[in-house]
Design brief:
Blueprint lengths: L1 E14 L8 E15 L2 E13 L7 H6 L24 H4 L3 E18 L6 E20 L2 H4 L2 E24 L2 E24 L7
Antiparallel strand pairs: 1-2, 2-3, 3-4, 4-5, 5-6, 6-7
Length: about 210
């Protein structure tokens, strides 16, 4: 067998904003292969894996706009003040939330292209495509509900796959041409998700 062509790439994106924790990281790996196994058979794959990270809680823009810049946010003991100005929650406490937001996408498309031996003009092609998407979102905000705390955990998973079978016959006989195609496909779509929330924690360790 001989390797006809290949493509491989790795990329990273790190996008920041002026607001703390309002950032975004993405990693991507891509691999494409086309292999000529014999003169009448080719195999190939197009695939990629992408992970995205949105983790980190940003302070409330409303609280930032309400807070007077000259008001101190630390007390005499160098501890963060819960409400430094007229009921406005301290933004430096808001960004200390435990926050995770990660997403992953795995995709691959495999194909086989076969010119049927000894039957001129007859070709069979199979395409199998699959895609897995997962999302994880976890958060604990100890400043919510007057510092009684609020938390949530969200998880979702989607898995899709498709199988296509394509049989083609192309042949010219003197004064006429035959061109026929037969297609048979199957597809599946599956998804699941879990959401959980809780409020008012006696102890933040919980």
């Amino acid at each position: 067998s001989s390797l006809s062509s290949y493509f491989f790439s790795v990329s990273k994106l790190n996008q920041s904003n002026i607001l703390i924790n309002d950032d975004y990281k993405r990693y991507n790996v891509r691999l494409n292969l086309d292999i000529e196994v014999t003169k009448w058979m080719k195999l190939g794959v197009q695939s990629f894996v992408t992970t995205s990270d949105y983790s980190g809680a940003s302070p409330s823009m409303g609280d930032l706009q309400s807070l007077v810049p000259c008001v101190p946010v630390y007390d005499v003991n160098n501890e963060l003040i819960q409400y430094p100005y007229k009921g406005t929650v301290n933004p430096l406490l808001q960004i200390q939330q435990d926050n995770l937001d990660k997403r992953m996408n795995i995709f691959a498309n495999f194909y086989a292209d076969i010119d049927i031996p000894y039957i001129k003009g007859l070709n069979y092609r199979a395409n199998f495509s699959q895609n897995l998407i997962t999302t994880k979102k976890y958060n604990f905000n100890n400043t919510a509900l007057n510092f009684q705390g609020s938390a949530y955990k969200n998880y979702s998973s989607v898995y899709n796959w498709t199988l296509d079978n394509i049989l083609t016959y192309k042949r010219t006989f003197k004064d006429h041409t035959v061109n026929a195609t037969l297609v048979y496909g199957v597809e599946s779509r599956e998804g699941e998700g879990t959401d959980a929330t809780a409020q008012m924690f006696i102890n933040n360790v919980l």
